[in-house]
Amino acid sequence: MGYTTCTCANCGHSYKTDYTKATGHTPGDPATCTTPQLCATCGAVLAEALGHDYQEEVTAPTCTELGYTTHACANCGRSYKTDYTSATGHVPGDPATCTQPQVCTKCGAVIANALGHDYQEEVTAPTCTELGYTTHTCANCGRSYKTDYASAAGHVPGQAATCTTPQLCTTCGAVLAEALGHDYQEEVTAPTCTKPGYTTHTCANCGDTYRDDCTEAAGHQPGDWIIDREPTTDSEGSKHKECEVCGEKLEERPIEKIYKQATTDSKGEAIVGGYLVTVTDTDTNNPVAGATVTLHEDQSLSIRLPSGRLLDYADQTTIQVQLTEDKSPVADMCVSVTDRNNNFSSGKTDAAGQLTVPGGSDTTNEDGKGTVGWEDANGDRHTLTVKVEDHETNRPIEDAGVSIGKTGTITVTLPEGTDMDEDNRITVTVTDQEREPQEGLTVTVKGDLGQKATGETDEDGKLTVPEVTELETHGAYVVGYTDGTFGPDRDMLRSEAATIFARLLAQRNGERITGPAASAFEDVPADAWYAGYVSYLARYGITVGCADGLFHGDESITRAEFTAMAVRFFDAYGDGDPAIMEEYGGFGDVSPGHWAAGYIADAARYGWVAGYGDGTFHADDAITRAEVVTIVNRLLGREADQEYITDNPRGLVRFPDVLSGYWAYYDILEAANGHQASFSDGGELWAK
């Protein structure tokens, strides 16, 4: 409390009065970690110091700095460090290169500076088509760049191109102008009935000539019978068939003399030899006047319908035979009916003395014809005339049974003793009553020994059975050496390569290779074993010389030279397997200026040649004999029948140095063994 103190100045006596209440403390600054809160008036401690609230933070050591623990007060921020640990040091990365320093893998600090390039120079001289230059290549990393370019020298032209020889650069051997190629003019000689046809090709420039596109003789096309002399009641007549193409008389036959003959009247009736024969329209029963009725000596009847009426299943004709004396029906009488289109139908009269034609079955006449009919599911009626012939001779087959089922399938049953096999084929021709060919009809032909063949008629209404597998002749085009070996890994010589292509082309053209009168090249003497082959190919522009104009037959042929020869061969051969097998993307070591670049690109596009795994072609390397036959087989689409070779080892040309496990074993046997081959989805099949 406050008060007033009264004190005597003389004696010191005092007392207190005027008491007042206490004022209370006045707080100073708040307490901190180290300082208490005091009363601003009296300095009394109002709140004790708080004390520090330390928080720890660990800092890991780096490559160059110590690690430690930091203690910091959360209230006032005062801090201190303890627990120091040593720096870890740098961790070296990849060694320094020409362009990259060595750095620490942890902190990225540069440990060693980049080394810098150590360039070595190499001078490439200019060629005919390529620039010259200096290549600077770093000895350490391989990086390179080019400087000091020099212009290409340009080609030096050799002799001008001819029909078979290209113009070459005398410096590098590049083809400057392709061989002109023969300017062949074609003259087609059409086949005749008895002689084959062919095309003659004659070069307008050099006169070289050859024949190809041989076609078999067409064979005679027999026409209908031509009446030379009509028969009478006193003498026979005669008739013959001529080829419709060349007019040659093919066959001549007598016509038996007329025993009895008459023409139907307005009632459709005719009397012959005691028989009353009535011809009517089956559906309307209207009489058919003007039909010629002939009674033959064997008591059979033949009827020729008037010109306005045909044998027609949709408009059938009925013949009735009766005895004139009592009009009783005559059963089992043989009756044949023809019309103006030489359709033919026959049969025997029934118990009522009647026969309706055409029916569902018949027997072929001397012209191999029989006319039948059928009704389809829609109620439409169809008439078909079936002609049966020997395919090889075109001679008609008489007495063959012809029938037609409910679905329109035609069945032809050959007469006893008629052969039907691959050497004796049967041709069936189907027309309607107006002689129009009928395409797409199913025909089954049966033989007397159980043979059966079925097929559909073509656009000409024809079907020939049985089908014959077409065989292709694959001639042998390689041989071994005198010691019996093949030498698959030996380099192929230029002379050997020419021999292969010459044999194949001669086989294809049906030509014979003989020794040349004059050699095509100065270094190929006329008595060289391969002279005939080289000369033969030179006619077709397939063999060309080297840069010096010589052939060099005893030298190895390079991959580029062989490829160029193969492409030129295929142009002349004009057959084989041209289907593109792969998409050609170019070879890294075949520049556009290489003399064989165009040939190599063509062959690669066709899948005949392939490069190495690194994308190069090695154009100037030699090619082995095994590689050659593999390429040639691909070029020709030839592929060995592995099953046949396995099952028939005897009799095949084989070589002691080419075992079955060798990579080109089957290709070599395909090339060394002549054979007949057919083809299926599974590949080539050799004929047994």
In short:
With about 700 residues, this protein is mainly beta.
Could you characterize the architecture of this molecule?
- With 688 residues, the chain is mostly beta strands.
- Strand 36 (442-446) and strand 37 form a beta hairpin.
- Helix content is 11%, strand content 31%.
- The strands form 13 sheets. It has a 5-stranded mixed β-sheet with strand order 21-24-25-27-28, with no helix packed on it.
- The chain contains 7 helices and 41 strands.
- The protein is elongated, with a radius of gyration of 54 Å.
Ordered list of secondary-structure elements with their pairings:
Elements: E1 2-7, E2 14-20, E3 37-38, E4 45-47, E5 54-59, E6 67-73, E7 79-85, E8 102-103, E9 110-112, E10 119-124, E11 132-138, E12 144-150, E13 167-168, E14 175-177, E15 184-189, E16 197-203, E17 209-215, E18 226-229, E19 237-242, E20 249-255, E21 260-263, E22 269-272, E23 275-281, E24 292-295, E25 301-304, E26 317-323, E27 334-338, E28 344-348, E29 354-357, E30 361-363, E31 369-375, E32 381-390, E33 401-404, E34 410-413, E35 426-431, E36 442-446, E37 452-456, E38 462-465, E39 472-474, H1 494-509, H2 531-539, H3 559-573, H4 597-605, H5 625-636, H6 642-647, H7 665-672, E40 675-680, E41 683-686
Parallel strand pairs: 25-27, 34-36
Antiparallel strand pairs: 1-2, 3-4, 5-6, 6-7, 8-9, 10-11, 11-12, 13-14, 15-16, 16-17, 18-19, 19-20, 21-24, 22-23, 23-26, 24-25, 26-29, 27-28, 30-33, 31-32, 32-35, 33-34, 35-38, 36-37, 39-40, 40-41
Helix pairs in contact: 1-2, 1-3, 3-4, 5-7
